[in-house]
Design a protein that fits this description.
This protein has 349 residues and is an all-alpha fold. It has helices at residues 2-9, 13-31, 38-46, 50-60, 63-67, 71-103, 120-129, 138-156, 161-175, 179-186, 192-212, 215-219, 223-239, 254-270, 279-289, 292-306, 311-315, 318-338.
């Protein structure tokens, strides 16, 4: 029992590093223009592994909380998601309206195609559907919805909850190709967040399934072979056109992106970082890989103002994406330190 507790608390540095890479991946997608790099843009447009991988990781670590019906950890999870989901859009509303009124400066990344301030009714639309004026928050919307559904199932079916969730995942996958789904989607009777919920359920269910067998502990026993095979498989996913696109999906190659998420999870969680004994190296990896949630929450909004003043960001260069990532990381680092003893730390971590 004590060993299990130790394992749960142990940080997997490989996954920490993967979170940083995925976070930067998202910043690149939102800020890099790929000028003269059509092949690279094609890879980023088709190989959208970043969000499904985040989804898989999130539910991998949620499994034990559901299994044990750990009320404290489940409540903490919802706090961690709800606080940024509710508070950041309100902060954006206040900042956007104040700057517009005082300095006549518009945030370039506020996706409200109206020449007016953001109203309270817009805020409520944003909270309910996550698509009114700050669409990047659709991911938290999906994460919250699936967390609620899976929690209800876990408390209702104690011994069979994982099996029922797996059936739920299988049904969602079938729904991708059903005539009902296509009928609703083509007539725009599904809001974006609802479509994305269906598209990302497989990654979430796989995360729970991996968590049920404590996959990371199994992988470290033969990490070298797994790292080599996972790396070669990842090359194949990028190089060969194995799967076809499905018209109308945001993540059009559902199978490809789900497999990519699985492979990235296995590859990075198998990296032998446990061999590193140097405390300074370990602390450095933790430092650069922390606050990925906060970077995701703020980078697009921050870009909306920096694009006016920092040339590489305005040009949409790789350097601009790196600068945006570093500035966002610095803001989140300072915010997490200032509010480290307060629940507002969830805005930055």
């Amino acid at each position: 029992m004590n060993n299990n507790k130790i394992n749960e608390r142990k940080v997997n540095l490989g996954l920490q590093l993967l979170r940083m890479i995925l976070s930067f991946w998202i910043v690149i997608i939102h800020s890099y223009f790929f000028k003269g790099k059509a092949k690279l843009k094609k890879h980023f447009d088709e190989k959208m592994f970043h969000v499904p991988t985040f989804m898989l990781i999130s539910f991998y670590f949620f499994y034990n909380s559901l299994l044990k019906r750990d009320n404290f950890k489940i409540i903490q999870r919802f706090k961690r998601l709800l606080i940024p989901y509710i508070i950041w859009p309100f902060i954006y509303l206040v900042i956007n309206n104040s700057v517009r009124k005082l300095f006549s400066i518009k945030n370039e990344n506020i996706d409200l195609n109206l020449k007016r301030p953001i109203y309270i009714k817009d805020y409520f639309f944003q909270i309910v559907l996550s698509s009114r004026y700050y669409p990047p928050f659709w991911y938290i919307n999906v994460l919250l919805f699936l967390s609620i559904i899976f929690t209800i199932i876990a408390y209702s079916f104690k011994n069979l909850f994982l099996f029922i969730i797996q059936l739920f995942g299988f049904f969602s996958y079938v729904l991708h190709y059903s005539e009902i789904y296509n009928f609703l989607r083509k007539r725009k009777m599904f809001e974006l967040c609802l479509v994305l919920i269906i598209q990302l359920i497989p990654a979430a269910v796989i995360g729970l399934t991996f968590g049920s067998v404590n996959l990371i502990n199994i992988l470290v026993k033969c990490h070298l072979r797994i790292v080599i095979m996972s790396f070669l498989f990842l090359i194949c996913l990028f190089k060969f056109e194995i799967f076809k696109s499905h018209d109308g999906f945001l993540y059009q190659k559902v199978e490809l992106n789900t497999l990519g998420a699985i492979d990235l999870f296995i590859l990075f969680s198998s990296l032998p970082f446990d061999k590193i004994k140097n405390t300074k190296i370990i602390n450095f990896i933790k430092l650069i890989s922390n606050n990925t949630g906060g970077i995701y929450y703020i980078h697009n909004f921050v870009r909306g103002y920096l694009v006016r003043y920092i040339r590489p960001i305005k040009e949409g260069s790789f350097l601009g994406s790196a600068i945006l990532y570093i500035i966002s990381h610095l803001i989140c680092f300072l915010g997490s330190k200032i509010f480290r003893k307060n629940i507002l730390r969830f805005l930055f971590i």
